[in-house]
Amino acid sequence: MFRILFFVFTVSCMTVLAEEKNLIPDPELKNPSKWYLTKGYRILPESGRERNHALYIERADKNQYSLGGISIPLETLDKNSEYEFGGQVRSEPFGNGTPAQGSLVVQFFKQKKYLTEVWVHSPPAVNDWVGLSGTFTIPADADRVVFLPLLRRYTTGKVWFSNLYVRQKKLAFFASILLPHQPQALTEGNHRFVLGCHVLSLPSRYKGERLFAMVELKKDGCVVQKEILPIRNERVSLSASEWKAGAYRLKVSLTASDGKTVLAESRPEMNVRIHAEAPDVFVRIDERGRTWVHGEKFFPLGLYLTMPERQKPPVAGFSTQDMLNDIAESPFNCIMPYDLYDMNQGNYVGILDFLHRHGKMLICTFSHARDNVKLYRSVVAKIRKHPALLAWYIADEVIPEKDLWLKERTEWINQLDPWHPTWAVYCLYGKGALARYSGTCNVFGIDPYPISSVKTRSIERLHSAYRNVRETMDASVEKNSAGGMALWTVPQWFSWGLYQGKNNELKNYYRWPTEAEALTQSMIGVIHGAKGVVFYAYSPMLREGRYKELWEQICRVGEQLKELAPYLLGDNPGPEIRFREKTDSILAGSWRNDAGKSALVITCDNSVPGKALFTIEGNPEMRSRNGLTRQLPSGEWLFSSDSVNSDILYQQD
Q1: Which pLDDT belongs to residue 7?
Q2: Residue 417 contacts residue 424 (beta carbons within 8 Å)
C-alpha cells in the first residue's frame, strides 16, 4: 500500500470557536534569526502571494538534500488539542531532472531523537500559488515540534512558500461504537455498548471540568432511551435490554459538567441493527476482537496480492493458478486481492470456490471502488453467502478528514451484508486521525511499515503506533487494557525500492525485511493486541525476481504464526511473566490455548541489544522455538539478541 499525500478536507461536526492564532514564531518571515536556514534556503522580500515575504528554496543537484525550518515553542501548544498547518506554495523546474515539488512537514522529537512526522506535498511544478494544509496532534512523549517547508528529496528546481501558519483547530467531538464490534449484526436480547468519546481542542474554560455524553437511542425517529453518562478514559458504557428486531440509531452529544449544555454533537448518528436470528454463514468478531467463522475460532493469516497477469509488467511464466496453487499449500488461510479488476471482471466466484476447497478464505476489496454503489450491490449480492468470504476491505490509507465518507461506505456494505465485517487499513496514528478513523470499520487495520532503508536496524517505532491505536480503539473502559480491540495488522513484506520506478539509484537505498524482522513485526503486533495478520504483500516477491527464496521465508514466518494461533485465540489468560532484568527493547506476552497449555512470545526491537532474565508463573516446562532463550540452572530464563528478532516458548506435555 502506498503512503498517501493529502490536502485537508472539510470536517463536519458541531464546533466551538477557538482562537485562530498563528503559532509560528515568525510567520511574516521578517526575522531570519528565528529560522534555521540551510543551503539553498533564502527569505525573499515581495515574493509571496500578496507581495509579502516568501521562503524560497532552490536545488540543482537532486542528491543535495537539506532541511530548514523553525521550532514551535512547546509551551504554546496543548497535547490534547488538534492543529492545522499550511500555507501557499508555487514551484518551477530547472528544465532537467525531477520537477520541483514543495512540502510542508511537522516533525516531533523526544530528547533530540526523532519520533514521527506528518506531511503534505504539492503537485509537481505548480507555476501558480496553491494552498496546502494538514492536521496534527502532538505525541504525548514529544518535547520538541519543528515546522519544515522543504523541497522534496530527489527533486530539483525552485519553490516559494508564502503565508505559512500553524493554528489550533476548533473543538471537535467524535463518538463511535467500540463494542459490540459489529453493531449491524446483533440478535434479539440484551446488549452492552462501549462508546469511544474523543474530544479535541477543548476550550480552556472547560478544562478541568468533568464532561458527559448525552446518548439518545432512537427507533423509527423516536427516542426510546436517553442517558447522561460521565466520560471516563474517553469511554462511556451503557446497556439496553430486550432489544427487538429492527433498525436503531445512536445520537451522542458532548455536554459540559451540568449534563445539559451541549458543546458538540458527533456526526453521523450511529446505526445498530437487531435481527431475529443469525444465518449459518456468519463471520463474527467477538467482544475480545477474535474472529469466528461459521461458529469456529479463526485467526486471519493472509497476504495482499495482485493477480500476476495484472501486474505491470505481467509476470512471465507465472499465472494466477500458479499463485493459487502455492497459496493452497502454504500456511496462510486467507488472501486479499488488491486489484479492483480481479473483483469486477475476473473469475471471483471461481477463486472463492477454489479457496473453499482448500480451506482458505478471501477478503473482498472495495478499497478502490470509491463511490461505485452499483458495483457494491452487484458484488455483495453475488458472493455474500459464499462460505469462503471472510470480510469486506473498504479503505486503504484514506485520509482521516474523509471520516464521514468512510462511515458512509462501511454503512452501505453493512446494510447489504451485515454478516461479514468491514476492514480498513490506515497509516496515520495521531490522536486526531485515530479519533476520526474510529467507527469507520468493524475491524481496524494498521500498517506502520518500519523497514525504511538499508540503514534500518531497529523497529521500535512500531510500539508507539500500536499504543496510540489501542488507546483509541480498545473497547475496555479501563485505561491501557488490550482486552477488546478488533485489530488485524499488516506487517511489511516488501522493499520500498520496488516503488521507485526507473530510479535505480534509489532502489539501492532500500531493502527487504529479513525473515526475523517479518516474524518480529507480527509478534509485536499480536502482543499489542492484534487478532489477525495479513502481510503486504505477495506480489512484490514476483517483481523482485527471487520469488522462490522470499516465498520460502514468508511461509516459514506464516508457519510460526499458524502454530501460535490456537494460543492467541484461547479463552484463558497466559501465565504471568516476572522480569528480574529487561532492556527497553524487549516486549513479551503470554497466552493459553483451550487445552490449557501455555505459550510465551518475547521480542527484541533492537533499539538497544535485547536481554531479559525472567521466570514464568508456575514454572512450567517450556521449549524454545527459535533457540534465543535458554533456562539457567537457577530456573530463570535468559533471552538475548543483538538484532531484530523474536522467540516463542511452548509448554511441553
Answers
A1: 27
A2: no
Tell me the C-alpha distance between 523 and 320, whole Å.
30
Bridge partners, 177 (sequence order): 195
What angle do helix axes 320-328 and 348-357 make, rounded to 10 degrees? 20
Question: Mean pLDDT, 10 residues at a time, over the chain (653 residues)?
Answer: 32 38 95 94 94 94 88 93 94 74 94 89 83 91 95 88 95 96 96 95 90 95 94 92 92 95 95 95 96 97 87 78 95 87 64 95 82 81 94 92 91 94 94 94 97 95 94 74 82 91 72 98 97 96 92 98 98 97 98 98 98 97 98 97 98 92
* Residue of 465, 471, 495 lying closest to 484 (CA atoms): 471
CB atoms within 10 A of CB 288: 18
Q: How far apart are the first and last CA of the chain?
A: 43
Task: Please state, in angstroms and rounded to a whole number, the distance separating the CA atoms of residues 390 and 412.
Answer: 17
Other CB atoms within 10 A of residue 39 CB: 11
Residues 198 and 89 sit within 8 Å (Cβ to Cβ): no
C-alpha cell at 70: 523553525
How many CB atoms sit inside 10 A of residue 418's CB? Answer: 20
> Which residues have C-beta within 8 Å of that of residue 625, sequence separation ≥ 6?
560, 563, 647, 648, 649, 650
Say which residues have a Cβ less than 8 Å from residue 437's Cβ, sequence separation at least 6.
400, 403, 406, 424, 426, 444, 472
Q: What are phi and psi of 66, to 5 degrees?
A: -140, 160
Predicted confidence at residue 222, as pLDDT, reads 94
Residues 6+ apart with CB under 8 A from 653: 597
Q: Is 99 exposed, middle or buried (0-12, 13-18, 19+ CB in 10 A)?
A: middle
Instruction: Find the radius of gyration of the CA atoms of the chain.
Output: 26
Give me the long-range contacts of 21-24 (CB less than 8 A, separation at least 24).
21/167, 21/168, 22/165, 22/166, 22/167, 23/72, 23/73, 23/76, 23/77, 23/83, 23/165, 23/166, 23/167, 23/168, 24/70, 24/72, 24/147, 24/164, 24/165, 24/166
Cβ contacts of residue 633 below 8 Å, gap of 6+? none
The answer for residues whose C-beta is within 8 angstroms of residue 643's C-beta and 6 or more apart is 457, 516, 604, 606
Ramachandran sector of residue 157 (left: φ over 0; alpha: ψ -120 to 50; beta: rest) = left
Q: Residue 96's pLDDT is what?
A: 60
CA 106 from chain centre, in angstroms, equals 19
List of residues 6+ apart from 420 with CB closer than 8 A: 283, 384, 389, 390, 391, 392
What is the pLDDT at residue 5? 30
Nearest one of 382, 380, 373, 474 to 422, comparing CA atoms: 380
Q: Provide the pLDDT for residue 536.
A: 97
Burial class (CB in 10 A: 0-12, 13-18, 19+), 188: middle
Distance (Å, rounded) from C-alpha 555 to C-alpha 511?
Answer: 19
And the C-alpha cell for 520? 518480529
Identify the DSSP state of 29: S
- The answer to whether the beta carbons of residues 497 and 503 sit under 8 Å apart is no
Cis amide linkage into residue 573, ω under 30° from 0: no
Would you list the DSSP string of 371-398?
A: T-HHHHHHHHHHHTT-TTEEEEEEEES-
Tell me the β-bridge partners of 192. Answer: 239
